Every structure is written in C-alpha cells, then in structure tokens.
Amino acid sequence: MPTLTAEIETFPLRNRFAISRGSKTETVVVSARLTDGAIVGQGECGPNIRYGETPESVLEQILACSDDISGGLTRDALQDRMPAGAARNALDCALWDFEAKATGVPAWQTAGVDAPGPVTTAFTLSVDTPDAMAKAAAENADRPLLKLKLTGSDDLARVRAVRDAAPEAQLIVDANEAWDQDAYDTCVAAFVDMGVALIEQPFPADADAALAVLPRPIPVCADESFHDAASLEALVGKYDLVNIKLDKTGGLTEALRAGRAARELGFDIMVGCMVGTSLAMAPAFLVAAHARFVDLDGPLLLSRDRDPALAADRSRLSPPARELWG
User: Fold this and answer.
1) CATH number of the domain that 181 lies in?
2) How many domains would you assign to the chain?
3) Is the overall model pTM greater than 0.90, yes or no?
4) Catalytic residues, which ones?
5) Per the domain annotation, does 112 fall within a domain?
6) 234 lies in a domain?
7) In contact, 258 and 300? CB cutoff 8 Å
8) Which domain holds residue 233?
9) Is-cis flag, bond preceding 308, omega within 30?
10) What are the angstrom distances between the C-alpha of 43 and each of 16, 33, 66, 254?
11) Within-domain flag for 255
C-alpha cells in the first residue's frame, strides 16, 4: 500500500490577481503524494478562505488520512472519510493518479469517459480600472474567450472598455457575489448589447433567491452557490449553469458524479479552477468534455509552473502527459 506525504507550495503569479474579495501576487497550494517506492501518484488543491480553508488546515486534514491510506483507503471510501473540499480533492486526485500508473489504465478509461482532447480555456482579466482592464484586453484580444472579474461598482465601464479593446473575443463576467439587484438590473440589459455570453455568481450564495424571478437574458452560472451534487436541487430555476471546480467537489470522483447529475437536471456545465499549477488542472480535463465553458487558465497566470506542465498554445491547452497526471 502507498504511503502519503503532503506539502504546502507557493507559486508566483505573472501579475497581481484581484477579484471583488481581495488580491494576491502568489498562489499557495497543497499537494499530496502517494508512493510505494516505485510508483508515485499526485494531486493538488487550492485552499479557499471563502470556505474557511487555509493551507495549514488543509495540510492537516490530508495528513490525518495517512493511516487510512496505508491501510488501503479507496476513492469510494474517501468520499465518506472526508467532506467535500480542497483536502479531499488533493487526495482523491492522487489516488486516481496512483491507480492509473499502477495499472497502466488511463484515468479517463477508468472513469468511463472519452479520452480527453485539447480545450480552449477562458483567460481571466483581473479586476482593475476600466483603462487598465482595456489594456489587458488589448494584449489578449486574440484569445477566443475572456473572463472579466467585476466588483459591483463601475462594472459597465469595465465591460465597455474591454469590449472596445477586444471586439472579437467572447466575454464572460464574474462578480464573485459582489452584486445586488440594482447592479443586476443596471448591467444585464447593457451586457446583452455588448454580447456578454455568461454571468457568473452575481449575488451572494445566501442571497440568490431573486434569480428565480429575475429575467435571465444572459445565462447565469452558479459558482459559490454550487459545491457538489447535493447542491443542485436548490439551484433549479435560479441558474442555467453550474461551475464545477474540483476544489469544491472534493476531487474528480464527485466532480464526475456532480456533472452527470447536473446534466440530468438540465444544467449546462462550466469547469473551473482556483489559481493553481498544471497538476491541479489535469484531472479537470475529464470533466471538460461535457462543459459549455472551460476556465482552466490557472497555469497561464503563473510565472513558474510544474515540470512537466500542460502544453499551451495561448488559450489552447493540451491534455496532460502521463508523467504529469493520470
């Protein structure tokens, strides 16, 4: 049986990354590693303070499973052993990777999905002044899909500036819970005219009931309101898509289950990420095949990635090499 180690790692960003809740110049991740001396399985997660997680608390959760791992803990048993969240994500993905390398059977085949192919990811423009976001948009105007972080204040000016600077790009916007109903009413009609394709999590997760009665001429995606399959029933009638992030679902095992359940309920899917390395993005390729929008640009925001990393041609990401994951 494999033994478990884990560590906190820091990766610097190319530029300051800001959303409505704050900003950072580096990302801190926690990685889990399973080895039997010959085979190594890896997983990575991004702790999120929005859900009460810190790198230290997540590391402690992971290491608390050392005896269970040595005793043969399976992926299915892990779902009951730990709650959904970042810690379970790192362990779950490490178990997938270890199994793939031990058996020679690719993770996609074990999961019963098609072999992953290249995906076109959104590229995120950090929240800033309209002029600064327009400059960033001009530098990335060749990318097919730009994701704009918003704040609930001056957002019309931000989106207009980006649209003018990148007239051919498809735009999606993410308020990260920062809007109220006045902001929604003010922005949505104008965003229709600007060709915005998606609005992500406009309202706080505990104050999104209005979406059941508000018009949604632009599809609305649940992020903070959605965690795993158990979240879905409460979202029916309020959202059109759900953003599946492995750090929220607690790993690939639940992400695949949640994706199937979401589609059965009529939701479209966005597959997203925290800011992390190629190791964190790799398992999400198995979910991306059914996604209407892919947002796996974490490695593109880093000044240093893992080796090996996902091959990237601007916004076009290739599936992970076996040496990286799965």
Assistant:
1) 3.20.20.120
2) 2
3) yes
4) 149, 245
5) no
6) yes
7) no
8) 119-317
9) yes
10) 25, 7, 15, 15
11) yes
